[in-house]
Design goal:
Helix Hairpins, Four Helix Bundle (Hemerythrin (Met), subunit A), high voltage-gated calcium channel activity, two-stranded antiparallel sheet, mainly alpha, transmembrane helix, 22 helices, transport
Length: 557
């Protein structure tokens, strides 16, 4: 009696707990249904009912097909008994596969239902937006001007135009100095240059005014690119001051002209800053920017290489200088001393000679011939220095400099941000193509319509993203699980799925698998203990079947 009572109490407790959970779930579903019904608008009642009927018919059809599969699988499986657990395993596996397909199908149907609901909300929102468009059309004149200035200053055409203006201004500066160096006073050429400088000053003033309106005074002079802002302001102000001085010089007398010339010379120095402005082309030319970043990143390696070269030059300079000094002391009347002292008279002279010999500044056979007069051993030592410097040191220097340059260019923050920005822009263009309604969200139906498009395939291939079907990729990109993709979800999801798996991704996957194995091991252990507890009290074995796969094996990683 005690064993039967224990089993009965356990069954009642499990049944009571299951009823409580189901009751809570039903209450939550009823509350959710009431909230959804209260949010639905009257204009879409008929459409919602039509969609609901279609969804019920599709669900009934799907359930009928799945039930037929269940009946077929149950007919194929033999009858279960308390002592034949091996025969019941195929039936359980078939039921699990059918259940998995049912769960996947239900998730896909939920996504379709969510797509229909979003489409209805978009229709209602479009009708509401038509009534509120006229009230929101008016905006401030200042905001409109600032918006236009932002669009103009951020366009590539604007940047390339003023890039060409800066380059042509630098060329004009060189031509003007070349003509001035010929010492030919030509009033016509001076007037022409004055007009051209005035045109360039107006163009630069227009550029700085547009950028000031777009960014604002504080952001332009105190923002991230404050150095370029101050440089542009100084160049524009100095250009106008120089123009004013030249106009006054041409219209004034001799005394006033001499004083203005001194002022003009001072501000003419600022013309050098106009050539510095040409460095701004680095922002627009990707290849040139990569080269400049590579050179800047390789300066650290270049410093240590030059330090090693100086150390080698210093060591050999001491050896050769000591040999020449010893020869001069022992043979003060030698006729070869002047030539020897020309190349190796002091340590600094010897270092200069060796440096020129390495970098082809002097034919190294000439100092070698002078050292040969001291003895063949000094000539061999000099030849060893040339071989060490040119065949070993310079080749290592070239390889290390190239490697450092490539790494610096790849790790540069601006280059990485540019690549990431380019990917975001490509994803945004593709998202805009999928978002046919223009509401900033896409559903599974819209995603499936564009999945087989060539632009979509090209974009996924460029990111090295592969998916079996549209639903798998859509479900992977849908991070919050609401069956609706936003622009941020689409772009961030594509960036996360881009490329091959990294070591950190593999490590995270291994940690998740380890945690899942531990949880499954705990459940299997609890299941086994509970089965043994009931079997000891003569409980029916079929009520608590053992683990189908037997003992759980933990694979070490």
């Amino acid at each position: 009696m005690e064993k039967a009572e224990v089993a009965q109490l356990l069954d009642e407790a499990l049944r009571r707990q299951g009823q409580e959970v189901m009751g809570q779930l039903d209450a939550w579903l009823l509350r959710l249904d009431s909230i959804l019904r209260s949010q639905m608008l009257h204009e879409t009642t008929a459409a919602v009912q039509l969609r609901s009927q279609e969804y019920e018919l599709a669900s009934q059809k799907t359930n009928t097909e799945l039930n037929e599969e269940d009946r077929e699988s149950s007919d194929c499986a033999p009858g279960l008994s308390a002592g034949s657990m091996l025969q019941s395993t195929p039936s359980r596996l078939t039921q699990r596969s059918v259940t998995g397909r049912r769960i996947s199908r239900v998730s896909y149907d939920e996504a379709l239902d969510q797509a229909a609901r979003v489409q209805f909300e978009r229709t209602v929102s479009q009708s509401a937006m038509k009534h509120s468009e006229q009230s929101d059309m008016t905006s401030g004149c200042l905001q409109r001007i600032q918006r236009q200035a932002e669009n103009l200053s951020s366009s590539s055409t604007f940047d390339m135009f003023f890039l060409m203006v800066i380059i042509s201004n630098s060329i004009l500066l060189g031509v003007q100095l070349e003509i001035a160096s010929s010492s030919t006073d030509d009033a016509g050429s001076e007037t022409s240059f004055l007009v051209l400088n005035f045109v360039y000053a107006v163009a630069f003033t227009f550029e700085i005014v547009v950028r000031l309106i777009a960014k604002g005074l504080k952001t332009y002079f105190c923002g991230s690119s404050w150095a370029w802002g101050w440089l542009d302001a100084i160049v524009v102000i100095s250009a106008w001051v120089e123009l004013a001085g030249e106009v006054t010089t041409q219209s004034g007398g001799d005394g006033e002209a001499s004083s203005n010339l001194r002022i003009i010379r001072i501000f003419r120095i600022t013309r050098l800053l106009q050539t510095v402005r040409s460095l701004r082309m680095i922002r627009f030319l990707t290849a040139l920017r990569t080269i400049v970043y590579s050179m800047v990143g390789a300066t650290k390696s270049l410093f240590w290489i030059l330090l090693l070269l100086c150390l080698i030059l210093y060591i050999f300079s001491i050896l050769f200088t000591d040999a020449v000094v010893h020869h001069a002391q022992t043979n003060p009347d030698s006729i070869h001393l002047p030539e020897m002292r020309k190349y190796f008279g002091s340590v600094s002279t010897s270092m200069n000679t060796l440096y020129r010999s390495v970098l082809a500044g002097v034919d190294w056979s000439e100092p070698a011939d002078e050292l040969y007069k001291l003895g063949s051993e000094w000539l061999m030592l000099f030849n060893f220095f040339i071989a060490l410097s040119m065949l070993a040191l310079l080749n290592v220097m070239t390889g290390l400099f190239s490697s450092s340059s490539i790494r610096a260019a790849e790790r540069n923050h601006d280059v990485m941000m540019q690549n990431r920005t380019a990917l975001r822009e490509a994803a945004a263009r593709l998202f805009e193509k999928m978002d046919m309604s223009g509401f900033g969200t896409i559903t599974i139906t819209e995603f499936e319509a564009v999945y087989e498009d060539e632009d979509m395939k090209t974009f996924l291939e460029s990111l090295e993203i592969s998916a079996t079907d549209a639903w798998t990729l859509f479900n992977s990109l849908n991070l919050d699980g609401n069956h609706v993709l936003t622009l941020d979800e689409f772009t961030e999801g594509c960036l996360l799925l881009r490329g091959n798996a990294r070591s950190v991704d593999v490590f995270a996957l291994k940690q998740q698998n380890k945690k899942i194995r531990e949880q499954i091991s705990g459940l299997a252990k609890m299941h086994t203990e509970l089965s043994q507890f009931l079997l000891e009290r003569d409980t029916v074995s079929t009520r608590w079947p053992p683990v189908p796969h037997g003992r759980l094996e933990v694979i070490s990683t």
